[in-house]
Amino acid sequence: MTTQQLTSKSPTVLSWQMRRFLIGSSLTLFAFILVTAYLTPFLYMVSTSLKNREQQTNPNSPLWPATVATYTYQDQVYTMYAVPTEQGVQNWALVKKGRDSSYFIDPSNPQAGLIEWKGQWRALQEAWVVKFEYSNFVSAWNMPGQAANFPRLFFNSTMISFTGVIGTLLSSIAVAYGFSRFRFPGQKILFMVLIATIILPRTVLIIPTYAFFVKIGWVGTWLPLIVPHFFANAYNVFLLRQYFMTIPREIDEAAMIDGASPLRTLISIIVPQSIPVLIAVTLFHFVFAWNDYFEPLIYLSATPQLQPISVGVQAFNFMYNQQPAMIQATSLLGLSLPVLIFLVAQRYFISGVVLSGAEK
Amino acid sequence: MRKLSFFLVSLLVVVGILLTGCGQAPAPTSKPAAEPTKAEEVKAEPTKAAEVKAEPTKAEATSKEGKIKIRWFVGLGAGGDPPQVEAQNAIVKKFNESQDKIELVIELVSNAAAYDTLSTEVAGGDPPDLVGPVGVRGSNAFSGLFMDLEPMVKKMNYDLSKYDPALVNFYRVPGEGLIGLPFAAFPSFLFYNRDIFDEAKMKYPPDDYGKPYADGKEWTVEKMAELAMTLTVDKNGKDANSPDFDPKNIVQFGYHPQFTDARGEATLFGAARFVDDSGKAVIPDNWRTAFKFYNDGIWNKHFMPNDAQVQSDLLAAGNPFSSGNVGMSIVHLWYTCCLGEVKNWDIAATPTYNGKVTAKLHADTFRILKGSKHPEEAFTVLSYLLKDEAPTLRNIYGGMPVLAEEQPAFFKALDEKFPQKVNWNIAIKSLAYPDNPSHESNMPNFQKADERVKVFYTTYRGTPGVDIDKELESLKNDLQVIYDAKK
Amino acid sequence: MVVTSKPAKISGLSFFEAKWGYIFISPWIIGFFAFLFFPMIGTLILSFTNFNLVNAEGLKFVGLSNYYKMFGDPIVYSALWITLKFTIVALPIGIIYPVLLAALMTAKGLWGRQLFRTLFYLPYIVPMVSAAWIWRGFLNTDAGWLNYFLRWFGLPTPDWLFTPFWIMPSLLIISLWGVGNAMLTMISSMQSISDDMYDAAAIDGAGPVTTFIFITIPLISPIIFYNVVLSMIGLFNYFLIPQILKGVAGDPGGSTMFYNLYLYKTFFTYQDMAYGATLAWGMFVLVLACTLFLFGTSKYWVYYTADER
Fold this sequence. Notes:
The complex is a heterotrimer of chains A (360), B (487) and C (309).
Chain A: H1 2-8, H2 11-49, H3 53-56, E1 66-68, E2 70-73, E3 76-85, E4 88-96, E5 101-105, E6 115-118, E7 125-126, E8 128-130, H4 135-142, H5 150-181, H6 187-196, H7 202-215, H8 223-226, H9 234-244, H10 249-257, H11 262-273, H12 275-291, H13 294-300, H14 309-319, H15 324-355
Antiparallel strand pairs in A: 1-8, 2-3, 3-4, 3-7, 4-5, 5-6
Helix pairs in contact in A: 2-15, 4-15, 5-9, 5-12, 5-14, 9-12, 10-11, 12-15, 14-15
Chain B: H1 2-24, H2 35-53, H3 58-61, E1 68-74, H4 82-98, E2 102-108, H5 111-123, E3 130-134, H6 136-141, H7 150-155, H8 165-170, E4 172-173, E5 177-178, E6 186-193, H9 194-199, H10 221-231, E7 233-234, E8 250-255, H11 262-266, H12 285-299, H13 307-310, E9 326-332, E10 345-348, E11 352-353, E12 356-357, E13 361-362, E14 365-368, H14 375-388, H15 390-397, H16 407-417, H17 425-430, H18 446-462, H19 468-486
Parallel strand pairs in B: 1-2, 1-3, 8-9
Antiparallel strand pairs in B: 3-14, 4-5, 6-9, 6-10, 6-13, 7-8, 11-12
Helix pairs in contact in B: 4-15, 18-19
Chain C: H1 10-46, H2 65-71, H3 74-106, H4 113-125, H5 128-138, H6 145-152, H7 164-177, H8 180-191, H9 195-203, H10 208-236, H11 240-246, H12 259-269, H13 273-301
């Protein structure tokens, strides 16, 4: 359709189309370069998660997951090297290492026995082949030795995060609406008190809060991780309030004059206008709850079968302390649901725009 | 208004549903995926429900089952390696099946978070009962919080007579009493990688104390450094003695003192303390030599890795000897947990300094916290761990029995794990050269003093050619201030 | 505005407004008293006692002595200075970068927008502890990827994590990696700007840069303000990444001894909970003052479509 229009348009429009194409492609190219730089640490994470232990500690190994080609000689596995000889470069397996000379075996002619080669084996190139060590993910999934395996932790995290999201959305919308649309005595002070609650370092609040939850018997359950979120928090209220204040007041005042109650106005006017930011809050809280570590740890340390992923993964990583591959594999598995949710949320991001009447 | 109350009521209802739902979620919704944990879930369920209503006193909380809950906190020392975790879980299961009064629960917390978690639980009034395995260091960090076991030992007739009284005294701390019972010894010695020695066509370090190295010379720290130089190789295969050695691209190191701190590293040069009996800060001369030795070894002779290299993937991100790229390492017996892919290793004599061997010693054990609400039951569990399950636990932690008659069985089990034939005789003999005073001994105002020492540790390890004497002088002054602040 | 135009109904309307205002914020009020107020007061009381882990039973009030100690503590000042230095650099960058990123992500003509957004958001989801592991490997002096690439281009390879000079840029890079959330809030705000605004600007002949500065920025200023306030609070509370990467001693050479790391250390390592609480309240007063200052200035640069009242 666009091509038909294109051909029938005047040259100026054509050049406009051309310009649009140029702008689009250069923007995309720029974004691509930026995202590549931005994600190299992430690639490092992925690559590490797929490496085997031998490659990890091999200084000559490539950046991508790979393994050295090997040859089995008399039931022993030996590494293959590209060895320069008088007959050209040969692919031989290194059997016995030495400083001045080493012994190799020629896989194409094993009957010939060990060949002595003068030179430094460290200067030789190993023959690398790409190989993904999926078994890291298998162990991360099964979590041998842990009270709860990955699916169990995943389920726990999902429950805790989802209920928390519902709670924080309901309460924060209401509170932010209260702060942004109504005038009442003490409003400014109360809002500052709200902000102040996140200023005091959490480090010092942990012990009294923990003592309180011990007193009411919530330690060892999910309640301390969920219930407080049903009473709003400063991060979300502040964000929503800021956003609500960019929505012209005329719209909801018109609705109110038409006889809609404040609650009705909130549900039918404010909320539909705010879909993008509500999604931002959802993701924000979801990721927070998904990765929150210390609080679930202290509340659930004696009930491992109730722990969320963040805690379980840490305990598991503690077991594999010196194995970065395992740590990154478990972390990547843990990322799967948040990423999926983000991808789904993206669609609503777009539809939110349509609702607010701006077409892009 | 009606709508609002509807809104509020429905909000409350939702909250209520969720709360009850969450409280009960785990058991009924248990997925088929979590079969092995099912049994535990079902067991844990009533306890939890009870806890929600009841006062925090655990006796009431657990009354439904009639079992007293004893929490065993793991994380201050060993206990996090996969086989260890499995064995611990098996022991807990066995214990819980064996009797109907106590329910033992394990709290496994990663080492990085263990100190915070334990602090929070203690300060929050809900401490675990049993802590361990934990060494002298861990007990310094929580000094004053452990229960004096003396009354319990008397009351429960715990037999200590078979142990050397000096050994029992090792666990007595002035002002705190008997805060641990003999469990296992973790001597240190020299681990070495046979493959690396073979590649360099070098003879192995001496296989017994008192023996010289293969060249007939005394097995000293200097001799060890000499070997380490030859074992240190760059990517072109040149060793650290070679004039065109490239220190920027080292691929194999000769020596690394692993998993220890400044005092631990220095103890190879003789046991000492940073404080004298009158509470004055002192810098022992042999330790001064030690710190210079390490700085020189890392930055001039390059046979030891610096911290960046230790943390690199080449050296297995912080567990260097296990990478197979380190020739020798002085570590404790518990290192048998974590040797990774290195298979062809053996152990050898710790080298001498000034003609004297000092092989630092760990003696981790289990302790009971003062705040335990059920000290008697906790002690029952403690003696179960120390007596009935001691062989299994010692085996998984790599802790040697202190009684000679129990040692052969212990090493036999290790031989099954490490078929390359390890010279365990060294481990037994190392016990004869303990560091007294211990490299983990207390200092006044321990946490702050220890941290100041840590700062010095990064200085002498991290700064090429640093003026060690000057740094030690400032360390001494700072330590004195820290010690005095306590008084 | 609407209110003043109808003076006759002031009292009725304001009563109506106040009632609904209180009703809507009531969940937070309840939650505040149920979960936060008492712990907060508890730590305040703690700061006037000698409470620590061991002498829990020999507890007594010590008046203001913890506060005197704080004002005479040289580490407090050096830690504050380190925190301030980092904040002064990281705050502007941490705002400008996500704004520009959001502008790019909402730019017309960008292809594969959804994919790009996901990719830029991705690092934010990576848990702090694994992020620390990633960066420890990525920034390693000899074996790290970054130095590998720098060497490839023949550039000098800094000792990122082990020198007092380079540790700060390293921490900055790490914190920039997690701007996904800030970017997202900016995107959500930019998307709510109606096209009419841009069309009007285009008719006036404004170029893309002018439009961005004079239309987009003012219209998203409430969200920028939100991010400025939260970043500032977050930066004053910053310590987790240095703690995981470099431990509580503030390596190298005390250069990462941020205020909150000192606070954390006092609290958990030294187990001096009373002094820790004092440090926390000291920080609280300082950050609250900064926050009030920001709120005070907001009327000069934050543009609310719906008037602030």
